[in-house]
User: Fold this.
Amino acid sequence: MTKNVLATGLIWLMAALVSGVFVWLLSDILIHGLPQLSWAFLAEAPENSGRSGGIGPIIVSTLLILLVAMVTAAPLGLATAVLLSEFTRYDSIFGRLVRRSLDVLAGVPSIVFGLFGNAFFCIYLGLGFSILSGGLTLACMVLPILIRTAEEGLQAAPNDYRLAAAALGMPRSAALVHLLLPSAAPALLAGLMLGVGRAMAETAALIFTSGYVDRLPNSLLDSGRALSVHIYDLSMNVAGGDANAYSSALVLILLLFIINTIAMSLAKQWLYRRVVSI
Amino acid sequence: MNEIEPVDKTRMNESYTLGPLQAGPPCCDPEPLIRVDNLTLHYRKKPALENVSLDIYKGCITALIGPSGCGKTSFLSVLNRMTDMIPDCRVSGKVHFNGKDLRDPALNVQGLRRDIGMIFQKPVPFPLSIRRNIELPLREHGISKQAELNDITQLVLQDVGLWDEVKGRLESSALALSGGQQQRLCIARALALKPKVLLMDEPCSALDPISSGVVEDLIQRLRGKYTVVIVTHNLAQARRIANYAGFFWIKDQRAGCLIEFGQCKQIFEAPVHELTAAYVSGSRG
Amino acid sequence: MNEIEPVDKTRMNESYTLGPLQAGPPCCDPEPLIRVDNLTLHYRKKPALENVSLDIYKGCITALIGPSGCGKTSFLSVLNRMTDMIPDCRVSGKVHFNGKDLRDPALNVQGLRRDIGMIFQKPVPFPLSIRRNIELPLREHGISKQAELNDITQLVLQDVGLWDEVKGRLESSALALSGGQQQRLCIARALALKPKVLLMDEPCSALDPISSGVVEDLIQRLRGKYTVVIVTHNLAQARRIANYAGFFWIKDQRAGCLIEFGQCKQIFEAPVHELTAAYVSGSRG
Amino acid sequence: KSDESEIEKLVLTGSSTIAPLAAEIGKRFESLHRNVRVDVQTGGSSRGVSDARAGLADIGMASRALKDDEKDLLQFTVALDGISVILNKANPVEALSKQQIIDIYTGKITSWKQVGGNDAPITVVNKAEGRSTLELFLHHFGLKNTEVKPHVIIGDNQQGIKTVVGNPDAIGYVSVGTAEYEASQGAAIKLLPLEGIAASVENVRNRSFPLSRPLNLVTRSEPVGLAKDFIEFAGSPQVNDLIEAQYFVPVPR
Amino acid sequence: MSLSRADRQLLALLRGCALLSAVIVLLILLFLLRESWPVLRQVPLLRFVTDASWHPVDGLYQLTPMLSATLYSTLGAVLLATPLGIASAVFSRYYAPPFLAGLYRRLIELLAGIPSVVYGFWGLITLAPLIGRLHPPGVSLLTGILILTLMILPTVALTVDAALAAVPIAYVRGAAALGLSRWGLISGVALPAARSGIIAGIILAAGRAIGETMGVLMVAGNVVQQPLSLFDSVRTLTANIALEMAYATGEHRAALFVSGLALMLMVLVLVGTAELLFRERRYD
Ligand SMILES: Nc1ncnc2c1ncn2[C@@H]1O[C@H](COP(=O)(O)OP(=O)(O)OP(=O)(O)O)[C@@H](O)[C@H]1O
Ligand SMILES: Nc1ncnc2c1ncn2[C@@H]1O[C@H](COP(=O)(O)OP(=O)(O)OP(=O)(O)O)[C@@H](O)[C@H]1O
Ligand SMILES: [Mg+2]
Ligand SMILES: [Mg+2]
Assistant:
């Protein structure tokens, strides 16, 4: 009983601590970033190395890079997760090998991803500094996150569904699509959100791949500066860039918020249609 | 490789309409549909079944009885290869279905499972609407016309006596049904596929007497057209419906084995083995 | 607020050792422990129970019977406030336990659920070892000495007849037990807490006749010390063990209601209501 | 809209110090030459040198003079940058002699008290190995990096300024132009004179400030065509306002 | 195990995809090896742990201080973020009223997407001076650990939250029926049932902490030394690469790639130990 009270207190305390620190951080960004925020800031191109002007082209580049990363990584990640959890014995050599190499991939520093992406996508595959190179590099980066979360979600799906579907002569793919993936949907979504977050937040890997050019990209093969690179440049490399660095950070967070909201409501509708819960 | 017969509507309709209740135990044509020879089954290192040999006769109802943990569920799992889904489960011995080797690695397992349906002890409705629960496997097996699906859904739900209870809420979640309703839904779902053999693992244990009666009648009406293997703890029920009965037992806390198999009447009225005699007489139904 | 009595070891030991099998139905002292008055229950807008009034007598076994979906599980859920966990479930009417209002929002629900244990239709072992399954709730309720925990574990496992089957593998997962073993484990787990009332939702439906017999004996031995409310589809069983019986029915496809309640003998041998008469005579056990 | 195929692309890679300036020059260059795109990428001076050498970039950027083993390349100075020692504004110390700075950086002086300041331990801020600012600083004071006993090591300029702003007992060295700008914008730093000469853009311009470095564009061979035009443009007075806007000093021409 | 044609096609596709992810890891390893070859060819491996210091320009390649800095900062951050992250997930699943739970989850999701530069920037401007007041210089192992904790906390919280969401409702009801308190349910049933998801989350988070670059670079101080206290300035392997790569040439550059290799080696060792430690007793 006292343990319960203690735990309740502690959990509320920790949650308060966590949200306290984060509210502190967010309000700092808000206070410093809000004054410069305007429609013009969102629409215009940066001027004077970003000290003035806006971040319009940078937002576009960011979204394009994100799109490339997710469109590549999500199917690849989901497929690998399905293979690992549905078609591979948990303790098989193959499964372990893939899992361990994914864990290693998760620990590769982003700057190494950047250098690798530069060497492989930009130079070896001849994509040059481009949104495509950046997106593909990010895809490699978020892959472990997507796979691990999806795999955990699938493993947590009730085994009864697998047995019942098999007993009805349904192929595993059908059980997967109709029963297991929907019941793993919350985990898939959480993984996707984590991946999107990680991709949006990435700096080092993008400096070397998608580049520094702050012009509006004409195609995926153009170089385009991501928001996080812009923030890095303004705060570390450009004297007098702090104010706009804060505003750009604010915009990044807002973008993330919007993406999360859309993803969440889509997922909810989808789940509702499938009547997963009572 | 694919042994599933193409679905043709006439066959479907013809056989969803079951005949009237048949007389009772004394059987039909004693042609073995499934032959099990020296079956042994291990989970990891733990043996669960040892040297089980028996024949399942076509068109007959075979009841399997025995105490908890003696391997009845494991035995059923071998017959439709559900054992494939359990890691570390090793099966040895010979099992033939319709003359074909059931343990052939190259066998089309989905086709097999369509031919040999299974009902579980715990009902497992899918987290979908009631209608989708029945339609999903049908669509998977190539039936996609909505009118046809509707017909089948209504027929099988009527067969299990659920139609009147749920006809107004076919679109609501199957998880909101009561335990008994869920189990009947699962039976309906399996019947919709028109299997040749139906494996039932205590299908009535979650049902009230009325629906249990409904299902029992249903099983009786399956006789002749379908081959049924039923595990039940209800000895009276086994006695009422089965043509053949098999009695499993666990020897020395180790593996389960088949003690006696024979005509239902013989097992219940003139058991050869003393363990069987003790079991069928001593336990309360 | 905290109504749980402090656990003292003597009480524990004393009552784990149950007395010998008691004679049978004719009861004990007719003092109502739980009084249900005009209970109505809705799921979202769907009514599931309407105007149910009955008394549960202390030390007696009360059996609830009726067809699938008539609200028996829902009724049990009200008694230990499991209804709190179902969103959109509305309860009205009066329920008193030991003179205290059971529906009081300020009631200590955990204490209540310790006093009123529940066994589900589908066994729910936790994904832990067999031992941890039993120890977990005990530790939660303040018993932490390992020797004591070991004793209790052994005693309750013996009570449900599982000890010999699992004593060698107490540390292995409870999920690897067979269905019947799982259910007995759940009963053992509930008994370990020494509740005053035990609500059992078809506890034997997953058991084979032998373990079903073991559990039935167990329930009989609980009589006097414990108050038992049991939902069962096995009318013969209800008749053998219950002192009181209640018959539920669904009127016009709508809400379930209590048709008749009384001494078990009377319900089975001289039912007043014609529905009851039809049900107890007409259905096969 | 002009035909895509006519567009000529000029790629510059290298020093992050020069990149913002090069990007601004590139924009002006684009506005004068339709159908030209100037793509500026960062990645550090060494990347600029190696990309220029490998032909991955038309022009490399290096915020230092070419080293001896890089003399196969050509360099064109577009601007100058001074390096100044900075302290926190709250620090009462107003000047340090060359020897004092050497002693502080080699760990012989560890408290501000020893140079007439507060009784507080000195936090020595140094640049990361390989950075041209570091090499210049070490060279000027006759130090070897192995002798320096730093408490904090920084990468870019702004990190140094922010570190000193946040720590009243820190000493560091950064680009004169940006330090002067930040100080004028109210950042809590001050620039120390070096050998009696005030650290200011003015003194870098007139070459009296002793510690300065060139900002270079680098090519593999004698530039031709577009690269030649760009380098000439970047070295012309037409971009002086851009250079000053980045707080660097135009090369006197 | 025999499969239908649809399943076999699916399996082939899946195998291809999984292979691709494995190939990426291999490619990165090969790339690192190729880039670090110039120095690996000349410098005996032992010198990376026996040299006097890290001064690659002068041919000194000691890596151990940075290895231990990476280890300490990762360990510290994981030790702090794990309880906080689990508590966060438990809070939003079992304690917070629905409205607050949604809000809290959104907050955590947002934090997952804040760029590490922003965390670093904030740490440098806000946190480091505060800690500097306790003990100069302020940028230190401790600051690094705290900022890393903030960065990986959302990863832990979100993965654990998803794992808890997948705990079957039957367990919750079964636990409630036994009169288990909320905490009893969580610690006794829900967390053990979600165990493998929690471990996956922690491993993911640890990976992020090890690989984190820009954030630690700004707040950890970057002096190459064995830290003697939490207030010492340290340089992690990643910061080392990011700090010097831009200006490194020749063997210096190659030596930096060796620190990349060392990092991957370290991850490999960590993953191996984690596997040994948490070798799962899987209940299914
Ligand atoms: N997946 C499994 N892994 C390990 N052991 C198992 C597994 N499934 C069943 N067993 C064990 O094998 C034995 C036979 O189990 P089985 O489920 O076949 O018995 P049963 O006759 O169906 O029992 P019940 O009547 O209780 O359902 C039991 O001892 C059980 O504990
Ligand atoms: N969570 C729920 N939400 C909505 N409806 C429910 C829910 N649980 C049960 N019901 C409905 O309430 C009615 C009574 O259900 P209940 O489970 O109490 O019946 P029961 O008498 O226990 O049946 P059975 O013998 O099959 O277990 C049924 O029609 C059922 O579909
Ligand atoms: Mg079984
Ligand atoms: Mg029920």
Notes: The two ends of chain D are 38 Å apart (CA to CA). Residues B 178-179; C 72-73, 121, 201 surround magnesium ion (ligand 4) (CB under 6 Å).
